[in-house]
Amino acid sequence: MCNVPGVPPDATPPTTDDLSRMLNQVLDGAPRPAALGPVRVHSVATEVADRLMTAVATGDYLPGERLPGERELASILDVSRATVREAIGRLQAVGIVEIKRGRTGGAYVRTSWTEATASAVRRTLLPRWPELEQLFDLRCLVEGMVARAAALRRTEEDLAAMRVALDGYARARTLGEEQAADAAFHAAVLASTGNPKIVELSRDMLTRVSLGFPVEPYGEDDPEDYQRALIEHRKIYEAIEAGDAEQAGSLAEEHFTLTSDMMRAMLGRAQGRPSG
């Protein structure tokens, strides 16, 4: 169920080796590398700008939302603040962000897609795509394990937190509200495992598939995707509430293909391929 297209049939399955390596890093308390490695190219500012444009295109950061500050972005991408400043200037020049001054100032997303976006998405995703396909697969397996543990360990307080998030998702009227409620639901499922190392592993996987940004890629406003996610959230909750570990795990594995499907569609758009 977690297998995704794009991985060569003779490739070594990443499950055992990659999961063991990540578990060892978490258990040893070793510093986690930035997802897909730090930026190391001839034009660092170009790479940072491309990665930021891709993050906006895939819905890590939505129109109207403020990007993380210079210091935080420099830490996320392992570059200097001057490089981040130059990259943000490039996003401003092509109309993706606007700079606001004052106490609530910063770089705010104006639009998710401009004429400059397609080439930035191609430059960012194409070289990384084989690894991303493996990470999508591995993430499904990890989230299946999370849901199974949640079904066996959840408390009434955990279930209550999940219900609050479900209600928030059902009431959401904007993409930002959907994204926030989605994050709250999965955070409640994670918390119900009762194991901080599992939480850390799940968040590490999220960061890796999100190009280093610790935010779930959310795509564009699509009523069909919203309805699918709403139904799947409810089914995952029901399985966790019932203590059905295998059902919860299978549902979670299928649910997390939403992210890979969206990113695959985004790359197709950047390459000029029709969606669907």
Automatic annotation (TrEMBL):
Q: Which UniProt keywords apply?
A: DNA-binding, Transcription, Transcription regulation
| Transmembrane parts of this sequence | none
Task: Please give the InterPro entries that the UniProt record associates with this protein.
Answer: GntR_C (IPR011711), TF_FadR/GntR_C (IPR008920), Tscrpt_reg_HTH_GntR (IPR000524), WH-like_DNA-bd_sf (IPR036388), WH_DNA-bd_sf (IPR036390)
**One of the record's GO molecular function terms:** DNA binding
Positions of the HTH gntR-type domain: 42-112
Name of this protein? GntR family transcriptional regulator
* Source organism: Streptosporangium carneum
